[in-house]
Amino acid sequence: MQARFVLLPGDGIGPEVTAEARKVLTAVATLHRHEFSFEEKPMGGIAIDEFGDPLPASTVVACRAADAVILGAVGGPKWDDPTAKTRPEAGLLAIRQELGLFANLRPVKPNRHLIEASPLRPELVEGTDILFVRELTGGIYFGPSGVSDDGRSAFSTMVYSVGEVERIVRIAAEAARSRKGHLTSVDKANVLEVSRLWRRVAAKVMEEEYPDVHYEVVLVDAMAMHLIARPRDFDVVVTGNMFGDILTDEASMLPGSLGLLPSASLGDPGPGLYEPIHGSAPDIAGRGIANPLATILASAMALRHSLGLEAEALSVEAAVDSALNDGLRTVDIAAGAKGVSTVAMGDAVVARIN
Ligand code: IPM
Ligand code: MN
């Protein structure tokens, strides 16, 4: 098949890790006789430097025309000035909005070869396999906000509509159906009106459309606790934008390294956006030591969710698993040892795909 990828390498280690993902996708294309094209576009801090805008219009146009977008990372100390007009992160929020990427899938499945890297006891983490479905274009991130004239108060508002809750719950329920058939919805309905609407709408969708899926609700503060006390008890977890942001950072510690976790942001219609969960890691940028596996696994998600190439996606995931099984480690997962380079890790994955 033919597919167009737009790459948004961004800042820090972003260019290094997206280069490895591109290499892996190229290997998949050659092996399976697909025609993949790649176009790189500026986004984030680098786009602020060049165009004064973290998300230039030409980048949005290219993304819209793509089948899938692969993002590295954005941000860094250079653009941290609190008085600046804009920030690299604004580009990320804008592209989610522009492409209508309302569903953010964040799978958390500790790799069995790295279980010792987890800060939690291995017997507690072993067997964990959670898919977080985070609502991404609504809630407090995008509700009305402002600062009073005298600058002495400010507000941000969490707003959800029935339609927004229905569509994200459906995505999560479909995912649960194809997994272990268990969905947990997380809210703060004991306090927030918006959560009471979320809970009511979610319950109705589940009862009317997914009676076969085991459904439960958990308050967000309790969920923060359960996640480290009994992570194995969850299958698919659906929640709003900010709760999802916080809980997925917490969950990212279960596998022990941020360097392994991919994420997919999907809209309907339009291309999906795929990225590692980790940030731009400016402290190690340009040194060739970043872990490319999260971005490589994100490109596997692109093969699966945007191109429907399940077998190819599985082959990339198996290649990553085999590289880890063979002891290849970048420094972040090397437990004090030297570790292989970013490029060497990418090469190892490519070699195992072929
Ligand atoms: C994430 C990030 C972003 C978010 C920031 C960088 C805007 O933390 O993707 O989780 O809060 O959504
Ligand atoms: Mn986050």
Keywords:
Isopropylmalate Dehydrogenase; two-stranded antiparallel sheet; binds 3-isopropylmalic acid; alpha/beta; ten-stranded mixed sheet; 354 residues; 12 helices; 2 domains; globular; binds manganese (II) ion
Question: What can you tell me about this protein's structure?
Answer:
The chain has about 350 residues and is α/β, with parallel strands linked by helices. It has two domains: about 200 residues, Isopropylmalate Dehydrogenase; about 120 residues, 3-Layer(aba) Sandwich (Isopropylmalate Dehydrogenase), CATH 3.40.718. It is built from twelve helices and twelve strands. The strands form two sheets. A ten-stranded mixed β-sheet has the order 2-1-3-12-11-4-5-10-8-9, sandwiched between helices. Strands 6-7 form a two-stranded antiparallel sheet. α8 packs parallel to α9. The radius of gyration is 20 Å and the shape is globular. The mean pLDDT is about 95. The site of 3-isopropylmalic acid has 4 residues, from α4. The site of manganese (II) ion has 2 residues, from α9.
What's a quick, concise take on this entry?
The protein has about 350 residues and is of the alpha/beta class. It has twelve helices and twelve strands. Manganese (II) ion binds near residues 245 and 249.
